[in-house]
């Protein structure tokens, strides 16, 4: 550390000395012990000091533009993207995580959690070895074009992953669907067209697509929306496949770590439920304010029962929340 300090330009020396002191102090009972954990933390802080750092809410963000082998670009660091960032940082504490957004509205929030924000677009500096695109399709006129730009920011090392949707599967009779089930043909629905065209951009660039079922967490998902309405004019027997946000993030990361090329995977919990079953469980759990009264619809298309056994076997992944029921603390 002291040799390092001597080499530092004056302007950074004071900051670095403070960091070293804080580093020593924060080791508590380990102060003076130059074990591997302490040493790596100390050097990381110093390296950050040489490159310029911002300390916000305890998170150290390096602003250097040199590319690290585990640096990650998250296009669309919203709910899922931020969970991915948190998990990725746990595995790669010294990586840089960039976040590209549609607006500057959340840039200060992102900086606080250690994500270096910018608006979406081509990176004028270096490409990044890991890119995950997890922005939804409804805030852009050219979703496939946005994926093309994201692909141009990928160095071709690591992984490029696009979080697509199981909506692309051509099934609306509550039937079973797996990774290889047929997709809605192009030209049949603008909603699925946009997703499939975006997937094609990704696959052609050597990236992978992860088709996610309905995402939920306690305060987000269809159950929250229906609960806020009380009564909903929709048929109760439509089957919905789901996956918890945390599990979608852990699966995305597991896929990225495999560095596969041009592959399609599915993310779901393999325990699909009807709308009615979802809301019965919400009422029964006692974990929510208010009571859901019911669904009043009688017609319209049904849903699908997604199964991702193939993805699980290949990636070696299992969800933390095996079902919405167990997530609520109820027995299955
Ligand atoms: N929700 C579901 O049930 C579901 C189901 C299947 C698949 N998915 C997919 O899962 C992914 C994650 O969903 P989520 O709920 O975490 O999304 P989210 O929270 O709505 O994502 C919002 C983030 O995306 C940014 N953004 C929006 N459009 C963008 C664009 N065209 N380019 C760059 N950034 C853009 C927003 O920027 P600002 O900060 O400027 O707002 C914000 O950072 C998405 O790809 C979604 O399509 C979701």
UniProtKB/TrEMBL annotation:
Domain of life: Eukaryota
Keyword Lipoprotein found: no
Keywords: Isomerase, NAD
Molecular function in Gene Ontology: isomerase activity
InterPro entries: NAD(P)-bd_dom_sf
Transmembrane segments: none
Family annotation (PANTHER family): EPIMERASE-RELATED
Family label: Belongs to the NAD(P)-dependent epimerase/dehydratase family.
Full protein name: NAD-dependent epimerase/dehydratase domain-containing protein
Species the sequence originates in: Aegilops tauschii subsp. strangulata
